[in-house]
Amino acid sequence: MKILVCISKAPDTTAKISFKDSNTKFEEAGVQWIINPYDEWYALVKAIELKEQDTNTTIHLITVGESDCEPIIRKALALGGDEAIRINVDSNDSYYIAAQISEVAKNGNYDLVLTGKETIDYNSSSIGGMLAELLDMPYISLATRVEVEGNTAKVSREIDGGEETAEVKLPLVVSCQKGVAEQRIPNMRGIMAARTKPLKVSEPITVTALTSIVNFDLPPAKANVKLVAADNVAELARLLHEEAKVF
Amino acid sequence: MNTTQQTTALKGGEWIIKESNASDTFIPEDFNEEQRMVLDMCHQFLQNEILPIVDRIDQLEPGLMPSLLEKAGEQGLLSTSFPEDLGGLGKDFITSTIVNEGLGGGHSFSVAVAAHTGIGTLPILYFGTTQQQQKYIPKLASGQWKGAYGLTEPNSGSDALSAKTTAILSDDGKYYLLNGQKCWITNGGFADVYTVFAKIDGDKFTAFILERGMEGFTQGPEEHKMGIKGSSTVQLYFQDCKVPVENILGEVGKGHIIAFNILNIGRLKLCAAALGGSKGATTISVQYANTREQFKLPIAKFGAIKHKLAEMAIRIWVGESALYRAAKWIDDKEHEMIEDGKPFNEALLGAAEEFAIECAMLKVFGSEVLDYVVDEGVQIHGGNGYSDEYLISKAYRDSRINRIYEGTNEINRLLTVDMVLKRAMKGKLDLMTPAMNVQKELMSIPDFGSDDEGAFAKEIKYIKNFKKAILMTAGAAVQKLMMSLDKEQEVLMNIADMAIETYHTESALLRVMKLVEKQGEDATALEIDIMRTYLYDAADKINKVGKDALNSFAEGDELRMMHIGLKRFTKVEPFNTKEARRRICNKMLTENNYCF
Ligand SMILES: Cc1cc2nc3c(=O)[nH]c(=O)nc-3n(C[C@H](O)[C@H](O)[C@H](O)COP(=O)(O)OP(=O)(O)OC[C@H]3O[C@@H](n4cnc5c(N)ncnc54)[C@H](O)[C@@H]3O)c2cc1C
User: Fold this and answer.
1) For A143-196, how does the pLDDT look when each residue is reduced to its tens digit (9 = 90+)?
2) Do A59 and A35 meet the contact criterion of CB atoms below 8 Å apart?
3) What does the pLDDT read at residue B448?
4) B256-410 maps to which CATH number?
5) Minimal Cα distance from B49: which residue of A?
6) pLDDT category of residue A18 using cuts at 50, 70 and 90
7) Rounded CA gap, B530 and A229, in Å?
8) Which atom of ligand 1 sits closest to the CA of residue B408?
9) Position A246 confidence tier, pLDDT thresholds 50, 70, 90
C-alpha cells in the first residue's frame, strides 16, 4: 500500500500570537513551529500503524511550505515516514495548497491520502475535501477510526449522538482527528534514520489562489468577571437578560 | 580571546593560562538538527511518560521504575553513545550529554536513568572483557537489565578506598567469596547487575560484577530519603557471596582506576542533568509568577521576584555555556584518540581524564545552580511552594542530593585545585611562567591604557585579569604554604571558587562572542546582559574569596601588595545589573518559560 500523509507546520501552542503589516500578516518571528498535531498524532501515526500491519507499505509525506518547515518534516520522517516532498512555497489559500498536493499525488498512485482534520492555526478544514475532488477520490472527513483490509477501508466518524462507519474502496482521502491513533514520540533510531531519508524539494506549479486574507483581529480582551452571590438568583437572571442578553 | 588564533586544542586546565577562541568554542546554539530533535524528544518523553506520574514514582510503586527504564530503553535513551556492535547507537559525547540534560527534569526518574546509564553500565562497558561486554551491555543498553554500582560503605564514603568489603579466593580457585556491606546504592532495589568494589585479601581494591540472585548476595529495605523518593536506594549485603572469578572487572588491585574514571564522566553528566532540571524549575516558577496575584498585581511585576527569576536564568545559561564547551573538548579528544588507534573505551576514558578538572568544576557549579534555582523557586511560590501539591517542592527536595553524590562538592573543590597543582608539578601545565609574570606585573606600574579596542575588549581583559588573580593567589599559596597546603583546605576552597568562577565566566563570554558573530549584537542583547551581569558579580566573588585566601597566609607589605593586585585584577566598570536583570526576566515573562 502507498500512503500519502499531508503535513503542515503550525505554531507551538504556547507561541505568542501577533500580527504585522497592519494586521494583514501573522508575525512569524520568534515562533516555534511544530507539526500540526492532527497531522502528526492522528494522520501520520495511523499511517505508521498501517505500515506496522503490512510491512509492504510505504509512507510519503508532503508539505507545502518554505525551508523553515524542514525541521518538522525531519521530525515526521523520524516518527516513521519513508520519504518526504516539500513544495517550496508558502500560502494560506487552501485551494492553492490542495492543488499543489494533488499535482504530486495524482502521479503517485497512492491508495490512501491522510490529512489532519484541520490545522490548529487557520482551522479551515478544507484541504482534504478539495484534494479528494482534485484527485477524483472519495473523501471521509473527521474520521475517528480508520482500518484497512485489502483494498477496502472502514472509516468511522462521530455523528450527532453516535458513530457512523463507512466502508469505502481505496483509493481514498481521509481527514483524521482524535481517536484515529495515539501520539507517539520519535525514538533515537528514528531520529538517526531521518537524516538519511530522502527529502525532495520541488517548485510549485502555477495556480491562482482563490482567497486572500484581508486582516486578522485578536479576540477582545476578557472583560472583568462579575461575581454574583450564590443565593442571589434574581440578580443573576437580571444580568443574563439585560447585560449578557442571552435570553 | 579572538586575539590569538588557537591552533591546537586546549588541554585540561589550560584555559587558566591560555586564551580561548570564540569561534572554536562549542555552544548549545551549535547543536545540529538531530541533536535538537533528541533534546525535544527527551522533553516530550518526560512530559508524556514521567511528569504525569511523578507521585506514583515517588511512592516506589513496585515494578514502576523498572518499567519506565524499559520504556526509556525502547526509546533508545539508555545507550546513546555505546558502540553499535554492543547494542548502542554510536552517537557522540555531546549527544549523550544532551540526553542527560533533556531528562534532567524528571525527578527520581532522572536519577534512575543517570545511575543506570552511568555508574550502572559504564564500568562494564569501559573495563569489561569482550565476553563481559557481550554478556551484559546489550541487555543494559536495551533496559532489559538494570544496572547499579556499589562503592560506598557505612564507614567509607568520600574516602572510598578505605572500603572494608573483602574478597577471598575459594579453595577450588573458581570463586571469590565476598563479605561486607555497601550502602546508598541507587537502583539497588531492582537492579540485575551490580559493579561492586571489594578488597582481595583485604588490600587489593578490585571491582566485581555481581548479579541479582547470586548466592550470599542480598539487598536491604528502601531508605527513607529527604528527596528523590522514587529512586530506589538500598544497602547491599554480602555473606560469603560466591562470585565467579571471571566476574572480576578490570585488573586485580586496580579497582580505584575504575572507581575514579567513571566518576569524571558522571560529574559532567550530573551537571547536564542538574541544568536540565533547573530549566524546568525556572519555567514553573515563571508561570507561577505570571499568574499569582498579590496587591492586585501578578507577583512577576515585583522587582524582588524579577531579580530571582533573572538570576535563575543567568546561572543556568552560564552553566550551560561551560558544560557544552567542556563536553566538546572531551568529544574532540575522544575522536583524536580513536584516530590514533585507541579503542573506544580507552579513548573516552582518556578524554574524560584529560578534562577531569573541568568535570569536577562543572559538577560543583551545576549542582549549586540547581539548588539556587529550586530554593528561589520555592520562595516565588510562597506558601504553596511548601506544599506537596506543587511540583517545585518536589524539585527542592530532589535537588539536594546533587551536592552530595558523585563526590561531595567539597571533595570536588579540593580535587579541582589538587589536579591543577599536580599537573603543574608534572610539567603538564606551565603555571610557573605566567605566575612569575603576574608577580612582575604586581611590582610594575599598572597598565591604565585602553589598548584593546573591538567587541568585548573590556570583558576579554577582565577575564585575563581574573586568571591573573588565580595565578597570584595560588602561586603565593604554594610558595608560602608548601607542603602544608593540603592541610589548609579553606585556602584550597577559595582557590577552587576563583577557578570555577573564572572558567564559567569565560565560557559565557566566549558563547556571547560567538553568538554576536553569528547573529549580530541586537539579536544577542539579552545574552550579553546575562554575561555582563554574571561577570560583574563574579568579579566581586573572586575578589572576596581571593582576599580570604591571601589573608590566611600572607601579611605585612606582601599582603598589602597582593591586596592591591587583587583589587586591580577584579576591577570592573560599573554596570546596571538591576536593569539588565529586569530585561532578562521580562523576556521570560512574555515567553512564559525559560527561553534562553
Ligand atoms: C541518595 C543517595 C544515592 C547514592 N547512590 C550511590 C550509589 O549508587 N553508589 C555508591 O557507591 N554510592 C552512592 N551514594 C553514596 C555517596 O556517593 C556518598 O554519600 C558520598 O560520596 C559522601 O560520602 P558519605 O555519605 O560517607 O559522607 P562523608 O564522606 O562522611 O562526608 C561527610 C562530610 O564531610 C566532608 N568531607 C569528607 N571528607 C573530606 C575531606 N577529605 N575534606 C573535606 N571534607 C570532607 C564531605 O564533603 C561531607 O560534607 C549515594 C548517596 C545517597 C545519599
Assistant:
1) 999 999 999 999 999 999 999 999 999 999 999 999 999 999 999 999 999 999
2) no
3) 61
4) 1.20.140.10
5) A185
6) confident
7) 49
8) 47
9) confident
Q: Write down the CATH number for the domain with range B148-253.
A: 2.40.110.10
Contact A188 B89 (CB under 8 A): yes
- Selecting among B354, B358, B368, B406, the annotated active-site residue is B406
Q: Is B37 in contact with A187 (Cβ distance < 8 A)?
A: no
**Ligand 1: which residue has its CA nearest to atom 31?**
B158
- Can you give the pTM of this predicted structure? 0.93
What is the CATH number that goes with domain A2-215?
3.40.50.620
Smallest Cβ distance to A75: which of B37, B76, B592? B37
pLDDT digits (tens, 9 = 90+) for B398-453: 999 999 999 999 999 999 999 999 999 999 999 989 998 998 888 887 666 555 67
Mean of per-residue pLDDT scores for chain A: 93
Q: At what angle do helices B108-117 and B64-75 cross, to 10 degrees?
A: 60
CB crowding B72-101: b at 16 or more within 10 Å, else e: bbebbbbbbbbbeebbbbebbbbbbbbbbb
Per domain, the residue ranges of chain A are: 2-215
How much is the pLDDT for B447? Answer: 65
Q: Where in chain B is the domain with CATH 2.40.110.10?
A: 148-253
User: The domain B30-145: what is its CATH number?
Assistant: 1.10.540.10
Q: How many CB pairs under 8 A join A and B?
A: 46
Q: How far is the CA of B34 from the centre of ligand 1 (A)?
A: 37
Give start-end residues of each CATH 1.20.140.10 domain in chain B: 256-410, 429-591
Residues B346-381 have pLDDT tens digits of 999 999 999 999 999 999 999 999 999 999 999 999
CB B325 within 8 A of CB B279: no
pLDDT, tens digit, for every residue of A128-138?
A: 999 999 999 99
CA nearest to B589 within chain A = A16
Q: Give catalytic status of residue B406 as yes or no.
A: yes
Interchain contact, B76 vs A188, CB within 8 Å: yes
Burial class (CB in 10 A: 0-12, 13-18, 19+), A142: buried
Q: Given pLDDT bands bounded at 50, 70 and 90, which one contains residue B6?
A: very low
Judged against a pLDDT cut of 60, whether residue B480 lies above it is answered with: yes
C-alpha cell at A55: 510491512
CB contact A67 to B (< 8 Å): no
Ligand 1 pocket (Cβ < 6 Å) reads B 115, 119, 149-152, 157-158, 184-186, 225, 233, 401, 404-405, 408, 410-411, 414, 489
Question: Cell digits for B320?
Answer: 550551560
ipTM for this model: 0.88
CATH number for the domain running over B429-591: 1.20.140.10
What is d(CA A177, CA A181) in angstroms, rounded to the nearest whole number? Answer: 8
Give B-chain residues touching A41 at CB under 8 angstroms: none
Instruction: Give the nearest partner residue to B76 out of A14, A183, A187, using CB atoms.
Output: A187
- Burial letters B307-342, b for 16+ CB under 10 A, else e: bbbbbbbbbbbbbbbbbbbbbbbbbbbbeebeeeeb
Q: A186 to chain B: which residues are within 8 Å by CB? A: 37, 41
- Across all residues in chain B, what is the average pLDDT? 95
- Is omega for the bond preceding B343 within 30 degrees of 0, making it cis? no
For residue B474, give the amino acid letter: A
